[in-house]
Amino acid sequence: METDRKDGRTPNQLRPLKCSRNILHRAHGSASWSQGETKVLAAVYGPKAGTKKNEDPEKACIEVIWKPKTGQIGKAEKECEMIMKKTIQSICLLTINPNTTTSVIVQVVNDDGALLPCAINAACAALVDAGIPLKHLAVAICCCVAEEGSVVLDPTKLEEQQMRGFAYLVFPNSALSALPEGSYLVNGEPLEHGIITSVTHGVMSVDEYLKCVDRGRAACAKLSGFLRNSLQKSQFPSDTSSKAA
Amino acid sequence: MKVWISSKEKKPMGLDQSPNARHSLQSRIPKNCHHWTLTRSEFPAVASSSKTAVNRRPNPRRPPTAYCCREISRLAPPNSPPDPASLVVAIPDSQTRPGARTLEEIQKKVTMGLVDSSGDLSGEMEVDAFRRLFPLRYYERHLAESIRPDGRTLGMARDTTLALGAVSSADGSALTKIGSTTMLAAIKMEVMTPSAESPDEGCIAIEFHMPPICSPIVRPGRPAEAAVVESKRLSDTILRYGRMESLDVQPRTIWLVFCSSGMINLKELALVSGKAAWMAYLDIYCLDADGALFDAALLSAVAAFSHLQIPVVSLNDKGKIVAFTEEGDTVGKLEKEAVNKEKRKLTLGNIPFSLTCALHKKHILADPSSEEESIMETLVTVVMDSSDRLVSFYKPGGALAYTSLVTDCVRLTRQRMKELEKILDEAFSGMEVD
């Protein structure tokens, strides 16, 4: 049973992706990421000297500042900051530059659904642009569960509100390795099947959640291909934007 | 509690540095660890006679980090008991510390402790130091035996107690303890005018406070970051999204969202359609933060809502809602009928229960304490409701979680849900008897 989406997409189809690097010249690294109408701009400053008060000085510290499109910073923004901080902490190599702080500033340009995954993707691209050492990249996607139990990917804001529940999932990017497939298995699953972050809203059954995770993994494989292509583009500022449909 | 012995720029937490080498050694010892073990060769400044040690400063090329951590780690691998002969307890001058024991006594204790133990964690006096300095290794040695330092198995939660009606001035309240984590929830009701979009519905405002009493890292003034995040997550869980017809309502304004099949039906909070409805202020105070804050907070919120008794009100002559008072005079009594005499308690739909698990390599620890939470960086909170649906699977960052782990956490949460349902029922039946 296919659900008819308002913009004519199939349930497994993502919105057009667009990623640009090196757009802010004063920041050490910057990127903008847009999925359809949702657009987020991320900037990275760091590493700077010193850590914050309650942080471990033997590791690098990550600080995330989330700026909404309008209005003051409230609880929702603080929660997004906390989730992004923990996600970025798990992909960065924190012991390389101890006692330093890296700031990631996220500015929401437009919110049309799947805002947090868009922000995580933008922040990851900005970290690569800044040259912060990472273990692997993080690729994020939003999956919703419709009333009848089918899974729909990358919803718009309207769809998010009308669905029974949705989940923001972040996976590591798929590796491009010279070794044959199946040699890097952990518990019988390849590395990119592990969930880095998962935030759900609304109610769903456990099976529906696992279905979301499966679909999310497949979509993230495509997204990480796109991310790799766009980040491999040349360093010249004129050629730093790439598009994918 | 982690004792961070950091590089020269930062002062070690809670320890002061004085130029006197003799006192600086004493002051680097954590407060409740009276003894220290060092080998003579590695620490010549202390081992030499006191008169030369008085004015000797630590070698500037060797930062203070080296003194404490490295010496312990160089003693012996933890699996084999260290050779007692190589241990020299260096207390440079026994008469400076009034409580210091003599060298012979301490060495006897060390050897006795070593002989008694199975060789795993050798010596009673080293255990405390080992726990402070290498908390992860200390935990891993317990996890290898599938047990935790407080004696629980990996899937066992701490003792949970629930007391209803803890705050007598509030309309509903509950005090919850999970292990040492203590939460006090209280609900106050107030009459307000409902909004135009939903004239038949009341409103719930949920706020989570972490006063400085709960934890040493919380200071007065700025609210702790954890408090803000927990507050939002609690409101997300208790007031779930329903179907929204209007596009103007932002999804972030939780207060105006009406929930269709959540725990609380906001329509029950209505009084007079379009004119008056209840506003319930739920405040949760964390009195002791010892890990698994969300679990305790959610349980106390659920208990407070179950205990809630909506105050009886009536309409007075001017058409305003006032508190219903039983008075002697019969003149105005006929007009003053209670508006909601029948409806005093909220009917709760599917009640959500949660369980926080800490993940470390292959082990899943249910209901971590704050020490475990600080060591293990990956935390997962699973919230399920009584109809076996997943309300929330919350995993902010951390190590990678595979499908087997997801199913294991869900299974542990189901077990915990049964325990919590029993506890809630017992607390209720205990209250109804009164």
TrEMBL record, chain A:
Superkingdom, taxonomy of origin: Eukaryota
A single MF term (Gene Ontology): RNA binding
Localization: Nucleus, Nucleolus
A GO cellular component entry from the record: nuclear exosome (RNase complex)
Sequence ranges assigned to domain Exoribonuclease phosphorolytic in this UniProt record: 13-133
A Pfam family per the record: RNase_PH
PANTHER family, A to Z: EXOSOME COMPLEX COMPONENT (PTHR11953), EXOSOME COMPLEX COMPONENT RRP46 (PTHR11953:SF1)
Name this polypeptide is given: Exosome complex exonuclease RRP46 homolog
Native organism: Linum tenue
From TrEMBL, chain B:
InterPro entries: ExoRNase_PH_dom1 (IPR001247), ExoRNase_PH_dom2 (IPR015847), ExoRNase_PH_dom2_sf (IPR036345), Exosome_comp_Rrp42_subfam (IPR050590), PNPase/RNase_PH_dom_sf (IPR027408), Ribosomal_Su5_D2-typ_SF (IPR020568), Rrp43 (IPR033196)
Source superkingdom: Eukaryota
Region (Disordered): 1-24
Major location category of this protein: cytoplasm
Any GO molecular function: mRNA 3'-UTR AU-rich region binding
Family annotation (PANTHER family): EXOSOME COMPLEX COMPONENT RRP43, EXOSOME COMPLEX EXONUCLEASE RIBOSOMAL RNA PROCESSING PROTEIN
Family affiliation: Belongs to the RNase PH family.
This protein's name: Ribosomal RNA-processing protein 43
Taxonomic lineage: Eukaryota, Viridiplantae, Streptophyta, Embryophyta, Tracheophyta
